[in-house]
């Protein structure tokens, strides 16, 4: 695909409609977490059709914990770069909706204008926590249903995903009851968070036949490892890997900083680096140059000079 400045292959349908079309196809929709525009390009090149923006990934990339601290405008910055870079539908973590019903409506319009295809809203109260941590505090079912109804009223094409964290504190039946109420309020997809085994995943799908369900395959949490195919077999239509790429990138970055400090240079890690040529190919450097014929094509240095 061409850079976003070249409009020939740019999507001409709203992102929400494009995500709905993916949900209508056979098979599970796989959404890897992409914490910036470059990650979005890499995910697109790997063959994914849709992407995910994690609140934990956005917060941590800003050096902040995932406690509902970041703002609507800060999230929109991430949405714009990821949606623009890849041209793919993006599901965005909307935390608790940034307030009550009117705030949720404002969030929905801002996210939609920034290019989001879908948003998920969770039924915690602030300060919210990662769904796989302990001692989460839940909003009342009525308050959460009001937020979902407000989101559905405000959206034009955006899909509304209702996340319930109730399984940990209100049990399986409580989570199912909440999910049914959220569907009645206007949710398009249900996201049951932190289910702990395959029996729970299957039972939840049986309790909500015909409903589009989203599974969260995060590492180091309460959910065991399942593949996309396994989630599909359990009755799920979407799966996210929220911060898998972020975790891997951070580990590599930490090794680089340690090497710079200990070795005085990065020479030991050259084989682990993306080359300049590979980066330029990924971001379409020369295609951008071609947009302005007055720019002389850059010659990319090959290898490292000898001294």
Name the structural class: alpha/beta
Amount of helix: 40-55%
CATH architectural label of the largest domain: Alpha-Beta Barrel
CATH class of the largest domain: Alpha Beta
In N-to-C order, the SSE pattern is HEHEHHEHEHEHEHEHEHHH
Beta percentage is 5-15%
How are strands sequenced across the largest beta sheet? 1-8-7-6-5-4-3-2
Label the overall shape. Answer: globular
Straight-line N-to-C gap: 39 Å
Specify the CATH homologous superfamily of the largest domain.
Phosphoenolpyruvate-binding domains
Number of domains: 2
Number of helices: 12
Query: What about the largest sheet?
Result: 8 strands, parallel
Rg calc: 21 Å
Mean pLDDT: 92
Which spans of ≥5 residues are poorly predicted at pLDDT below 50?
A: none
Count of beta strands: 8
- What's the CATH topology name of the largest domain? TIM Barrel
Q: Your description of this structure?
A:
This protein is α/β, with parallel strands linked by helices and 307 residues long. It folds into two domains: 8-242, TIM Barrel (Alpha-Beta Barrel), CATH 3.20.20; 250-290, no CATH class. It is built from twelve helices and eight strands. Strands 1-8-7-6-5-4-3-2 form an eight-stranded parallel sheet. Helix 6 (141-154) links the parallel strand 4 (118-122) and strand 5 (159-164). The longest helix is centred in the C-terminal third of the chain and has 20 residues, at 244-263. The mean pLDDT is 92.
Q: What's the structural blueprint in terms of helices and strands?
A:
Blueprint: H1 15-24, E1 29-32, H2 37-46, E2 51-53, H3 55-61, H4 72-86, E3 90-93, H5 101-114, E4 118-122, H6 141-154, E5 159-164, H7 167-185, E6 189-192, H8 198-207, E7 212-216, H9 228-233, E8 238-241, H10 244-263, H11 276-283, H12 285-290
Parallel strand pairs: 1-8, 2-3, 3-4, 4-5, 5-6, 6-7, 7-8
Helix pairs in contact: 2-4, 4-5, 5-6, 6-7
């Amino acid at each position: 695909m061409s850079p976003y400045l070249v409009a020939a292959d740019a999507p001409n349908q709203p992102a929400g409609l494009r995500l709905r079309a993916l949900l209508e196809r056979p098979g599970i929709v796989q959404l890897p977490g992409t914490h910036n525009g470059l990650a979005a390009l890499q995910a697109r090149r790997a063959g994914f059709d849709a992407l995910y923006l994690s609140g934990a990934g956005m917060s941590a990339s800003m050096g902040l914990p995932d406690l509902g601290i970041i703002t609507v405008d800060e999230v929109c910055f991430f949405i714009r770069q990821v949606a623009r870079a890849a041209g793919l539908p993006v599901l965005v973590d909307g935390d608790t909706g940034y307030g009550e019903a009117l705030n949720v409506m404002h969030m929905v319009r801002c996210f939609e204008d920034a290019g989001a295809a879908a948003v998920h809203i969770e039924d915690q109260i602030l300060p919210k926590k990662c769904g796989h941590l302990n001692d989460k505090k839940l909003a009342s079912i009525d308050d959460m249903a009001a937020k979902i109804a407000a989101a559905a009223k405000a959206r034009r094409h955006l899909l509304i995903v209702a996340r319930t964290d109730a399984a940990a504190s209100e049990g399986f039946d409580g989570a199912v009851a909440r999910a049914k109420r959220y569907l009645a309020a206007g949710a398009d997809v249900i996201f049951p968070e932190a289910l702990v085994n395959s029996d729970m995943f299957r039972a939840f799908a049986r309790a909500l036949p015909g409903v589009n369900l989203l599974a969260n395959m995060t590492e180091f949490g309460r959910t065991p490892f399942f593949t996309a195919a396994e989630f599909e077999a359990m009755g799920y239509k979407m799966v996210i890997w929220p911060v898998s790429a972020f975790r891997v990138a951070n580990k590599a970055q930490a090794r680089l900083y340690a090497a710079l400090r200990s070795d005085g240079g990065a020479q030991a890690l050259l084989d682990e680096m993306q080359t300049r040529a590979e980066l330029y190919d990924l971001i379409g450097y020369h295609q951008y140059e071609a947009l302005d014929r007055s720019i002389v094509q850059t010659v990319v240095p090959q290898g490292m000079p000898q001294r």
